[in-house]
Every structure is written in structure tokens, then in C-alpha cells.
Amino acid sequence: MREKRQTIQKGLVWDAVSTATNHPNAEQIYESIALLHPSISRATVYRNLNMLVDEGKVRRIKVLGGPDHFDHWLEKHYHIQCMECGSVGDVRLGDGFTVPEREVDAHGYELVSYEIVFNGICPDCQIKRAAQEQ
User: How far apart are CA 95 and CA 75, in angstroms?
Assistant: First the structure.
């Protein structure tokens, strides 16, 4: 992956992703940047976000039924998506947990990579659900 030149806009996108405590989607990244830099366009944010992914500096997390989310932590790890609000977080698994690639039946495909996303209900949505039940 060839690194493209660094621009102010790309730096703003990188800062937004790398300082996020969650795994924001592109629209959330745009909104966080636009608060301080209202002249930035969505297209600029989306383009620079895709460049950072292409350069291997940001990880794209594909989730079912919603927009892609982004993560600055590049080491192999897993994610969980809230089935109610769509938020995405990290999953910590025991030290011994690994997916044994040699045991994956890929139906003739050569396994190159994989992404595991668990589904659940986040703590905030659990609280909302419990309040509605009262």
C-alpha cells in the first residue's frame, strides 16, 4: 500500500478516528469534525477516511444492517454490535482464544483474513429496555 500525501483534512479525519473512544461510522466522524471545522464537506471526510483504510492506518469494520464503522486499533481483535442502537465495541476474549484457520472449511477458498462481529445488546440499551418494562 502506497502512502498518499498528508493533508490537513486527512489529519483531521485521522485525529477523529484515533481519539474516538467508540468505533464511529463515517457520518459520526464527519459530525465530530464539522463541529470544529464547519467548512469541511462530507465527501472530503469520506474520501480521506477511505484513503486511511487503503493505507492500512484505519480498520474498517463491516457490520450487517448498518454502515461500516472504523477503528484505529489494527491488532487482530473482535467486535460486538448492539442489535438495537447499532453501536460497535471491542470484545476481549481469553488469551487462548484463536480461530484455527486450518480447521475452517472455506469451500475451496484460500482464507486470507476474517472479521468476527458478535451481536448483543449494549449496556445503555439494556438500561433503556429495563426502564420501559417498569
Answer: 14
Which domains are assigned to the chain? 8-133 (1.10.10.10)
In the block, residue with C-alpha cell 491488532: 75
Q: Residues for the chain: how many in total?
A: 134
Region of residue 65 (phi > 0: left; psi between -120 and 50: alpha; otherwise: beta): left
This prediction has a pTM of 0.79
For helices 8-19 and 42-54, angle between their N-to-C axes, nearest 10 degrees = 70
For 7-20, the pLDDT digits (tens) are 899 999 999 999 99
- Residue 50's contacts (CB-CB under 8 Å, 6 or more residues apart) are none
What residues does 82 pair with on adjacent strands?
120
H/E stretch holding 69 reads strand 69-71
- Going from the C-alpha of 30 to that of each of 15, 40, 66, 73, 127, the distances in angstroms are 12, 8, 17, 19, 28
